[in-house]
Fold this sequence. Notes:
Layout: H1 3-14, H2 49-52, H3 74-88, E1 95-96, H4 108-120, H5 137-147, E2 158-161, H6 164-175, E3 181-185, H7 189-197, E4 204-205, E5 210-211, E6 214-218, E7 237-241, H8 253-266, E8 269-273, E9 298-303, H9 305-308, E10 316-319, H10 332-343, H11 349-358, H12 361-387, E11 392-394, E12 400-404, H13 410-421, E13 423-424, E14 426-427, E15 438-442, H14 447-461
Parallel strand pairs: 1-13, 3-6, 3-7, 7-8, 8-9
Antiparallel strand pairs: 2-10, 4-5, 9-10, 11-12, 12-15, 14-15
Amino acid sequence: MSAMHQSLSTSLSSSTSTFLGHNNINTSRSSHVSIPRRTSGSVKCVTSASAEKTAFKTKVSRNENLAKLQAGYLFPEIARRRNAHISKHPDAQVISLGIGDTTEPIPDVITAAMSKRSDALSTVGGYSGYGAEQGEKKLRAAIASTYYADLGIEEDDIFVSDGAKSDISRLQVLFGSNVTMAVQDPSYPAYVDSSVILGQTGLFQKDVEKYENIEYMRCTPENGFFPDLSTVRRTDIIFFCSPNNPTGYAASREQLTKLVQFAKENGSIIIYDSAYAMYVSDDSPRSIFEIPGAKEVALEVSSFSKYAGFTGVRLGWTAIPKELLYSDGFPLSKDFNRIVSTCFNGASNIAQAGGLACVSPEGIKAMHEVVGFYKENTAIIVDTFNSLGFKVYGGKNAPYVWVHFPERSSWDVFSEILEKTHVVTTPGSGFGPGGEGFVRVSAFGHRENVLEACRRFKQLYATA
């Protein structure tokens, strides 16, 4: 065996072979090599015209705000590292508990409604083209009555969309570049990145890992993952997600009452992200509109993605009360309607048929069963890390487990887990400086994969 072959064999055998399958690569090759006959003549070296030619450049300047962004968006970066790991370990069984992507099938009662609508499009009587940009009337009414019954939110306050993430960017367009912004720290990175793109921020400050002109509301175990509002400066807009992604914590009624009062005192607007409301297991509010006075200072974005498995189907909504007014008394909902009508042609009619099935009695029951499955996964992950002696947060009211690795870089922990167990997680620092030292583990996965991942976690950290 050659030295090179010996080195390669040693490298493979000393890697984390516990999680690698058998290598069935056929290394045999023909011993006969055909070498073309050398012909006589001179060889002339010339420079390729294409090599000399420089790329044509327009006279249009790059959007300077995009140049402020640091590296790539968090989840594509994780996917890039995952793919690189798979290339390095092609026989490994890689398990993804990183990006919050659902894995279980959409319930039949919901897909049947979408299939029926799809089939109808092949008929003269059932075909429909462009629909209302705000969403189909029946679905808007059903969302209002299902999620906001007795809360004063009406059908025409609901704007159906292709998902909460898309609406976050439309809301940023609505408010423009001359507003100030506050976010929970840590929080879903789309809030900060969209603020940067719209020009609401200054430059990134590497020493503190923050953008200038954004108010980072630190949420830690010490303050119960709810910011100390007495230390938060006044901003125009407050992004607030509950149950929170990534920490998994749901704000209490008392805490949200303080938040609404804080917004009223400062004349601020709360963008409340309730994408995980169906995972709430205790008496924490599922909507900001459960808080008295919230309709005057808050709007709410939500989604079917994590309830019905619509991460690929794409369907969500934004609720904007008529009582929510600008400083000049003009209703926000009228401007948002203008944004939606200009930038959006409405959610897919097939997706909206699925949404209507979601909020039927049978659909709600089916979604609760799906959510219940993921909550069982969450309990398995929480129990695993608790048994290993880690400080574990979240998991009760959200499909995310927030694990503390004191004095360690979260990207280093991410890499360690990926290299030694072939499990993808999410580094906490990707959600803001307040996430450093934490790793988020998602409960979105097939049961056998979650159990296998937990077995590997135990093998890696049992003696740590």
